[in-house]
Design a protein that fits this description.
Layout: H1 3-22, H2 27-30, H3 39-53, H4 55-58, H5 64-78, H6 80-205, H7 209-223, H8 239-261
Helix pairs in contact: 1-6, 3-5, 5-6, 6-7
């Protein structure tokens, strides 16, 4: 073999070695050997695989791609420069893969941390929102209770005011009725007194001393008859005091009647 042919063959082997390495084709696995196998054992392994995939043995199942790969695996792994180029390319690829894996792991870790932080923030937001909703619900409940209490107080105040108005109206009616009774009684006493006076005058005019004396006695007795409401004639009492006294006397009289009925 000339030097040019050898150079071309070596260049081809170097290119094949780099191509197989970049495609992650494991030539050691093709020959079923490990990376420390020497050239002699590489040849033995090649013979075994070559016989296994030889067209005379496989016949209609012959696979030319595998058969060619077995031969090139032997050529590359028995040529020191090509084997070194193949191993270096595989090491570089393995290193880049490890770097990518480490980078991916770092990225995954960063992504996991970001997701964890986002989840924690979301949980906090959800918790804060739940607290806000609960506080708002409590505020509305307290406000409703306050409004209900205020409404109840207003109703009680209105009811009390109406009751006072009714009591005042009833008292005024009682006062008016009492005053009418007092006036009627006063008028009856005046009429009786006038009748007694007329009777006494008539008796005096007729010269009947006995009748005159009797009429005077009757008039005096009638004029001195004690009144249950004598204080109503007291000029020192106010109108309200007179009414209060009369009402008190009326209540006492009603109590006596109730006790007697029992």
């Amino acid at each position: 073999m000339s030097e040019d042919t050898s150079a071309r063959s070596l260049a081809d082997l170097l290119q094949f070695a780099k191509d197989y390495a970049s495609k992650e084709v494991d030539l050691y696995d093709v020959l079923k050997i490990d990376t420390t196998t020497n050239d002699k054992d590489v040849h033995r392994a090649w013979r075994r695989q070559n016989l296994k995939y030889h067209p005379d043995k496989t016949r209609e199942k012959f696979d030319p791609v595998i058969y060619e790969l077995v031969g090139r695996a032997k050529d590359i792994l028995t040529e020191p420069a090509a084997r070194k180029a193949y191993d270096d390319a595989r090491d570089a690829l393995s290193k880049r893969r490890a770097e990518r894996d480490a980078l991916n792991q770092s990225r995954r870790k960063l992504i996991d941390e970001l997701e964890a932080a986002e989840n924690a923030a979301k949980l906090k937001r959800d918790s804060d929102e739940a607290k806000r909703v609960e506080l708002e619900r409590e505020r509305m409940r307290m406000q409703a209770e306050a409004e209900e209490h205020e409404f109840a107080e207003r109703q009680a105040e209105w009811a009390e005011r109406d009751q006072r108005r009714k009591d005042i109206d009833s008292l005024e009616e009682q006062e008016a009725a009492l005053l009418r009774k007092l006036q009627e009684k006063k008028e009856r006493r005046a009429a009786k007194k006038s009748a007694a006076t007329s009777e006494a005058a008539s008796a005096e005019a007729s010269g009947s001393d006995a009748k005159l004396a009797d009429a005077k006695v009757k008039a005096k007795k009638k004029s001195k008859k004690p009144s249950s409401y004598f204080f109503t004639r007291d000029p020192t009492l106010s109108y309200e005091e007179k009414v209060t006294g009369v009402l008190s006397k009326m209540r006492e009289a009603q109590k006596l009647r109730d006790a007697a009925a029992v």
